[in-house]
Amino acid sequence: MGLPWMPLALAAFLAALLWPCAVRADGQLELPSQAGIGAGTGNFQVPTCFTDFSPPDIMRYWYTDAQVLSLSGGTDTGYGQELRASMRNVAATFSNQEESNFLTTTDEDMVNILASIIVLHSRGWRSSKAALQAMSTDDFRNTIIAELTSSGASIEGVQALSTREIADIAMQCPTAPQLQLSASSVHRRAAEVVPTTLALVSLTVSLVCILHS
């Protein structure tokens, strides 16, 4: 028997995928703040590796290829103040900081900030716009580190990595650095493994004795 909700779910997905970008009365493109994160504006492609991302690359999460090309001045390789202004707007939209705070932020750091937003949203660690708007850009990195170290990774090892490397790890990029376990995690896992190993050895010995009795 088919699942009655499947056609509805597929229709909703296609509608979201094909939804045109909203345009304000003054003819300007609606910014992500109007539609929510990644909804109705971008390519709907969540990156897994950020290492070589340029500003146009990162903006494709919120804008379509054609829009990014327009913001970049009609070229795939160059980009100017219009794209940078859009990056600042996205960062301000999804943080507790003003757009003016990012006027002197480098392109590299802007990509790092936007990559952090994508990671927090797509991993479900801060999945609402309201949750992101309560955070500073420093909070973004620290939250990702906290999530990664909650599974036993060494906090010192994670903190030593660049923001893009941390983002790659969070998104399970194949070329991401390998995390080192903390000493306490190693000891805890050893404490879990040893009793299990002893129990298996005891069971094996018992079975051998039974077979030879």
Automatic annotation (TrEMBL):
Signal peptide: 1-25
Key words, A-Z: Signal
Name this protein carries in UniProt: Mical2b protein
